[in-house]
Amino acid sequence: MRKALILLALTALTPPLVAKADTAQHPQAEEQALTLAEKAIALRSVAGPGNQTPQVAALFRSTLIAGGFQAKDITITPFGDTAYMTARWPGSDPSLKPVVISGHMDVVEAKPADWQRDPFKPVVENGYLFGRGATDMKLDAALVIASLIELKREGYTPRRDIILALSGDEETAMETGKILADKLSNADLVLNGDVGVGILDEKTGKPDYYSWEGAEKTYADFRMTVTNPGGHSSEPRADNAIDRLAAALLRIQKYQFRPELNALSKSYFTSAAQFQPAKIATAMRNFAANPASQSAIATLSADPALIGKIGTTCVVTMINGGHALNALPQSATANINCRIFPGHPRSAIMAELEKAAADPDVHFSDVTQGSVETEASPMRPDFTQAVEKAMHGIHPGLPVFPGMTSGASDSMWFRNHHVPSYSISPVFLKPSENFSHGLNERTPVAAIGPAIDFYLSLLPDLSH
Questions:
Q1: Does residue 357 sit in the same domain as residue 423?
Q2: Domain that holds residue 186
Q3: Backbone angles phi, psi at 103, to 5 degrees
Q4: Which of 25, 139, 235, 293 has the fewest CB atoms within 10 Å, counting from its CB?
Q5: Signal sequence span per UniProt (predicted)?
Q6: Residues 6+ apart with CB under 8 A from 289
């Protein structure tokens, strides 16, 4: 019955999307991935009271054991209201460093009243799997687990250990990701299933390109504070805490950090330009050739999807001020959230903000939690060749190139240990249908088969 549902979902989608998946290549693994994803989505693994992340870990553990993994090689560690998990597949050569597959089991909050469907009651409808975690990232975790079990079923034995490392608070404090990275700092490389960009054409549904990601911007929060003696509102004065804070914020709003490139982002702009409208494509190529090009900077800065790729960005996200309706404010504060281009320490960015604010009475403090600065991962030939081979095995001739994400993931903790980490989710989506962290999250069921084929090529190539 489940196999029939998968095939029905495949035929409901645009045919070009499933060019190599109209006949299931690994039906048992595909069925298991969908079933496991549905069971995981049904568990409300949200931080706070009733957090069911430990139950997700237990579900994954029991599935791996049933698939041939040894119980002694799978560990679930409670941590506050959550848990993290490791599952080791021992290799034949213990002298080799392990390959780590990274991901997370928790999801962001979702309120059923806001959704068209209950976010924690998964449903397959019109060729899509709906539910919180369908994209970020319970389906991706299920794909990895089903692929590992399929490799065991086919008799594969890795030379180096393969370790599945799943954190339990990636969407909040990110503490368990740090713990896992500390424990696995001897890894050869990390494959993070949490991020990756497989883009489908909005009109045709055909795959346009695949971009693995080898860097991410540093998350940072800076608090701006202005204090004042205050006074009676009937006696206004020129020195007003809220006014001074507002003026400083407007100066920061107009400030632009120096646009810049690294090897990953340059390759992205050069390669992805062909899929953009003419004006954007020209700007991307010009920026890749000259990151000081003012016309290119202006065009790319005007696009919310691209401004974060050309350098550090900072934006005010919260403000608070005053203590009474009829009193002059004694204090005013604002939070500036920054996404920092790799290679810059937070202290340097805060100093730049202080200069932009241009008011010595506006005091800055770094209030960042759960983040660390990291450099970009190298473009290792063994990895790039393996990922291109795996992707071309499911989509022959598809453009494959690196990129950089503006968000934060557990990869930063591994990169902090100088362990190369690459985001490689092989799930393809239309940009308009990416609802991660949003309402009515969903992913095409047709993505399951090709994604498993991708992993069945990539994992042996990097663990031999």
A1: no
A2: 2-216+375-463
A3: -175, -175
A4: 235
A5: 1-19
A6: none
